[in-house]
């Protein structure tokens, strides 16, 4: 191959495919390669045969839960905020024409030993078991403060500066109880741990506004989800990249990432006896554990492990108990409720989303590993599911780049985390874009609110 590209991208995860599409739309010549024969990388959606082959090699899938083609099971399910950044990217790039979405029916939080619905209307908030009467009044005052805040009107600030005041001080001011703080910080602002409490409140303010505006868009819950699984999203962005000249190669072995011996900069990617050259390389961390050029002192670690995620994909023949028999649920167990450092996430979808057979439900439980017995850490979540027809457990590394990438023109993405939403993916897209374009911010054009995804009500 004598062809030269502006960028080579390794891996067809959602982050990589979004970047591929954005670069292609920006006029760059992009080659996209993946060792797998399917799109999605670690976040692919698999049919029943693929699922059993991955977790139980050699074992035939059962015949009593529908046909192979009924299934598109996410290895890492993620829900989208209706008003979130990824939704804006889909609208901006017109990828919505390749996809259909359905709303996630409801959002729940685990509190005081039971499942409680996150209120979606004022009436539900009044009836909610999450708070007592006096706490509801305090919470109402807090949310009024958030909704009424105007940066240019000090009368709405109540003496606070969101850019300097830590979130914990605002909680204290409104005298909110610990359980209410859990609910706001973890079920609405979607934080993984408690570290946000000491950071400026602006970040939490933005997240609460995103949640409430997403909730207001369609009611019931703030989340939407693509029919046929999350694996549809990378494919949609890949199609867009191809329209703008991007080239895709699936099932392509990556044997070496070639560096210039003198400068240490990226030169190209070798597959077998072919080497294709490009100005820069973007890829998911799994491609950089080895196969990167350089010898002796020049050989550098490209990625580091920051933790591990344990996930259990569970096939159920019923909806999750105590969730009003809904066809889809986001359920968060805040870490304080079960004596942990990290939240436990449960994402449930069903045949209504074209990801499994009728009357079958797919629930995934995930969290950050904290002990030497990871599967036991999922127990608080698994115990809420009722009888489990079958279960597939995996433990994967959370990895991030060691360096920014400017020195060698290799820009590495981050692993998909334990959360059941995609906002952290968008943060990674923006970060890699910034690093790969000499500090330029990713700017998406504003479109009218009516444009975009058609959500089935």
TrEMBL record:
Pfam families: GDI. It comes from the Eukaryota. This is Rab GDP dissociation inhibitor. InterPro entries: FAD/NAD-bd_sf, GDP_dissociation_inhibitor, RabGDI. GO terms for molecular function: Rab GDP-dissociation inhibitor activity. GO terms for cellular component: cytoplasm. Belongs to the Rab GDI family. GO terms for biological process: protein transport; small GTPase-mediated signal transduction; vesicle-mediated transport.
